Amino acid sequence: MARKPMVVSLFVFAKGSKHAFCTACGYVDNKRVGVEVTRTPIVKVKPLEMELLAMQSLADCASFDKTIHPNLPQLYELPHQILQSLNSLTALKEIYQNSDPFVTALAFSLLLAPTFLIVSEFNKNYSQVDRLWSILPSIYNIHYVVYARISGLETERLNHLLAFSIAWSLRLTFNYYRKGGYNRGSEDYRWAIIQKRLGPSLFFLLNIFFISLAQSLLLLLLTTPAYIMLVSSQFMGKMSLTDYMFTHALVGLVIIEFVADQQQWDFQEAKKLYLNSAQKPDQYKPENLERGFVVTGLWSWSRHPNFAAEQAIWIIVYLWGCWTTRTLYNWTLVGAASYIALFQASTRLTELLSAQKYPEYALYRKDVGKFLPRLNQIVTKINGSRPPNTGKESKIK
Fold first, then answer.
1. Whole-number CA gyration radius for the chain
2. Nearest to 182 by CA among 194, 172, 168
3. pLDDT at site 148
4. Are residues 370 and 269 part of one domain?
5. CA 123, CA 340: separation in Å to the nearest integer?
């Protein structure tokens, strides 16, 4: 029996024949088949990498209709193809190489959704997505780089994007770890509050469609600029000065996030020490620690400097994709826009809870901008005078 070297296509059986013809590669399987299909047309399927490399312009590479839409039917074929090829690494590699890289990533993302749902409901812990939040975007970016390499495409831009992505993942994973996010039973306190407000039935629906499904898809959509960079690499040469500027901007924002995280961590550790033992660290005054939240360093310029940098990061990744394809906008905006919408809603809830917990938080909101410094803040900082509405000299320094 002849070996079928490609299993990623449809097979058609001619009437009265004992042979199965692979419509993608033309190989014949001499295995006797007892089912006849008389009305199935024979469709010639080109290898996917040839389709992706058949784009006529950079603008085509950023077109959803010319890249993603024609290949979405692969999503339905992938599960069967993979199951039929589990015993052959060669066949699995061919499936991978002849499947659209976005569709492959989409299938993985959709597979994760029911996994998140089942685990969260079984454990009654709804931070399952949170545990992979910092990891999944880099996994998708690694996937795009691997696909580009085995397809013989230029990967310099993708390599730089991946390097940033790994740095982003390391910073966020480390911060989540030291806060106890990976401890058994650890959960974002906001889920319990939302569950109490919605009730069990509505919260279960929220878990299905938002916590498990929408968030999983969002982490994939964030990385779609890497996909159009992959497709457009056939038209692009080496990295340009502008590409390096994008890279440096992203690394700079990750550094800002790290500094903001560290400043908040140092304050919370000092507050814990002060409240538990009355021991006062040298860098904080008692009234600062008693206030309960950090207002120094980057936090004197922005109430959420890490959130501001985080949103800016994915806007810049999107703009980098636009620059690469020479488009003013493209479909990958849905990832960055959805991420920003999520952060706006999340920040609003966080601030409502902070205002209830800390009496002086309302004054802090008047003095300091949510994400970006206000004009009067900048003037105050330059003049070195005390900000208005603080009530105490040590409120914000």
1. 26
2. 172
3. 94
4. yes
5. 29
Q: Which domain holds residue 395?
A: 240-397
Q: Which two tokens stand for residue 381?
A: 């900082």
Dist. CA 306–CA 312, nearest whole Å: 10
Are 202 and 185 part of one and the same domain? Answer: yes
Cα 195–198–201 angle (5° rounding)?
Answer: 90
6-62, pLDDT tens digit by residue?
Answer: 333 333 333 334 343 343 343 344 343 444 433 333 333 344 555 665 677 888 999
pLDDT: which is higher, 95 or 116: 116
d(CA 397, CA 386): 8
The CB-based long-range contact list for 167-174 (8 Å cut-off, 24+ gap) reads 167/251, 167/254, 168/134, 168/137, 168/138, 168/250, 168/254, 168/313, 169/134, 169/135, 169/137, 169/138, 171/254, 171/257, 171/258, 171/261, 172/133, 172/134, 172/257, 173/134, 173/135
**Is there a single domain that holds both residue 61 and residue 209?**
yes
Segment 386-396, tens digit of pLDDT: 544 444 444 44
Q: Which of 236, 253, 269 is the endpoint of a domain?
A: 236
Q: Are 231 and 102 in contact (CB under 8 A)?
A: no
Q: Is 72 in the same domain as 53?
A: yes
How many domains in the chain? 3
What pairs with residue 13 in β-bridges? 20
The amino acid that residue 6 corresponds to is M
Pair 134, 257 in one domain: no
**Both 98 and 176 in a single domain?**
yes
* Pair (220, 256) in one structural domain: no
d(CA 7, CA 95): 7
Q: Tell me: the pLDDT tens digits for 160-196?
A: 999 999 999 999 999 999 999 999 999 999 999 999 9
- The answer to whether residues 94 and 210 belong to one domain is yes
CA-to-CA distance for 84 and 79, rounded, in angstroms?
Answer: 9
Q: Which residues pair with 369 in a beta bridge?
A: 302
Question: Per residue in 261-278, pLDDT tens?
Answer: 999 999 999 999 898 887
Domain boundary among 202, 236, 270: 236
